[in-house]
Amino acid sequence: MECTRCGACCVAPDIAALDKPLGLRCPHLSPDNLCTVYDCRPQVCRDYTPDWVCRAIEAPTLDERVSRYLALFELTDEAAEVRSSGCRSMRAARG
Ligand code: SF4
Ligand code: SF4
């Protein structure tokens, strides 16, 4: 499976190496869904390869793909909690 650069894997999962919570956009992801720190991205991002999940979450919009990802791994409620409570480190990273 080829990566379609859909951006979902930089939004949906939590990424400990980046202190990135579940369901929130990585602050290093550009508006057109490209990694702005590609050359120094963490190992976990380097190791990520497109697989069946990419196909399973295919949808017209990024929001829909992220929702599908979260539903697939039964993380919808957890992600909603993160969204409602916010995340200090992400706010700092974005600021
Ligand atoms: S979810 Fe899959 S297809 Fe989309 S950007 Fe990530 S690896 Fe590529
Ligand atoms: S560092 Fe780059 S590849 Fe890794 S999650 Fe963020 S935008 Fe995606």
What does this structure look like?
Helices cover 40% and strands 0% of the residues. By secondary structure, the protein is mainly alpha-helical. It has one domain (8-94). The termini are far apart. The model has no long low-confidence stretch (mean pLDDT 92). One iron/sulfur cluster binds next to loops.
Helix tally equals 5
Could you spell the SSE succession in H and E letters? HHHHH
Q: Major sheet, described briefly? A: none
Number of domains: 1
Whole-number mean pLDDT: 92
Structural class: mainly alpha
Oligomer: single chain
Spans with pLDDT under 50 lasting ≥5 residues? none
Report the bound ligands by name, code or SMILES. iron/sulfur cluster
Q: Quick gist of this model?
A:
The chain is an all-alpha fold and 95 residues long.
From the structure above, extract its key features:
single chain, 95 residues, mainly alpha, 5 helices, globular, binds iron/sulfur cluster
List the SSEs and their pairings.
Layout: H1 43-47, H2 52-56, H3 62-72, H4 76-85, H5 88-94
This protein binds iron/sulfur cluster (2 copies).
